[in-house]
Amino acid sequence: MIPRRRIDIGWADVADLLRGIGDSPFDAARLVGEFEARCSVLLGGRPVRATASGRDALDLIFEGLGLRAGDELVVPAYTLGELIVRMQNRGLRPVAADVDSETFTVTPASVARAITPRTRAVIALHVFGAPCDIRGIGALAAGRGLPLIEDCAHAFGARVGGEPAGAFGTAALFSLEVAKPVSAFGGGLLVSANRELHGVAAAQLAQRRYSPWPVTRKTALKCVEELMVRSPAYGIAARLMFRDKGTGGFERLYRGLHDRVRPVDVTFSGFQARRGMRRLAGLAMRTGELNALWAQLAAGLPPGFLPQSRARHGEPAAYNFVARYTGDISQLRRRAQMMGLDLAIHGEVLDDVAAMLGQTDCPGAAKVFAQAVAIPLHRGIDARRLQRIVAILAKAARS
Ligand SMILES: Cc1ncc(COP(=O)(O)O)c(C=O)c1O
Predict the structure, then answer these.
(1) Cβ of residue 53 lying under 6 Å from some atom of ligand 1
(2) For residue 245, is pLDDT > 60?
(3) At a CB cut-off of 8 Å and minimum separation 6, what does 27 contact?
(4) What does the pLDDT read at residue 105?
(5) Closest Cα to residue 171, out of 65, 36, 306?
(6) Percent of the chain with pLDDT over 90
(7) Domain count, the chain
(8) Ligand 1 pocket, residue 80 CB under 6 Å
(9) CB 234 within 8 A of CB 242
(10) What pLDDT shows up at residue 261?
(11) What's the domain range around 111?
């Protein structure tokens, strides 16, 4: 089975994990400060705060911007549905801006259409690491006097006109989750040049307790997951789950493993900082390698697949390979799974947030959601596996 993702974990991480258990809160704070400073250098010099997750960073940005119940927010129509639920739980009112069906990103025109007199902020997403037209959207937001939040959850390492993604908006959030370009086994970053916003975030983060245990447990669980995914038993189990048409069990297993541990009340740990710094050091190399693999896979796709157009507005980061498939996508997924290729489709990729909100004016997002298929592309894919992926896709699309 070619799994849809591979967790990069090595002995150095295991050693750091053990070291992290012995860190005092003081050691951890020093390491986290060092990690934040290194991120800041890579992200254009703006101050950076490490947070519990990307979602946590977004919540802190909302607090820092003083958004209140009833305020409207323009959000991408194709993004993570859980973000919308979180906004609604705060009483915010998300309004979806449609996405382009080739880049899967929001555009200045679609954002302009979603702005109303009640809009208080705009969120733009560099989806799957592909930069959106952040300059155009930034100019629009500035013209309307609206803060721009750059969602860089997928985009550590992306660049626009030579500047890093995350350096354009009023504030940006990054995710350091397991499969993200810079993974610290969870965590996030808040990036902003706005001192007041940082002040509000710092006051909240200072309330958190220090404990190395939640991330230690999570990392141990991820190691077990990785062993499972690499073992032949995984392929057999996945095939069994796909024998009938119901894929619910498989999806639940995947989401369950992914979502189980997401601590919110603890500070970023010393282990996360050490791991994060190691990932930063190798980021440019990994981005180059994965982008080269990306181009090879895109060039080899059989007819019926339309890969995301990623480089229209800048240099992409290395994250998921997502294409639109114009045939029967459920059949494609089932057949590919039976042949040993673990594809993700529909809500396993991202969500049609416009549909969630009951909006019918976002045809781009509806199309992308219905047709999106994520094809495994990670550092476990060598030339031989790449050939196998292409061959399976061709066969699954034909049969
Ligand atoms: C588009 C987008 N924004 C924000 C987040 C939140 O990041 P986290 O999982 O670290 O909370 C994610 C998570 O994958 C995401 O896909």
Answers:
(1) yes
(2) no
(3) 270
(4) 98
(5) 65
(6) 80
(7) 1
(8) yes
(9) no
(10) 55
(11) 1-399
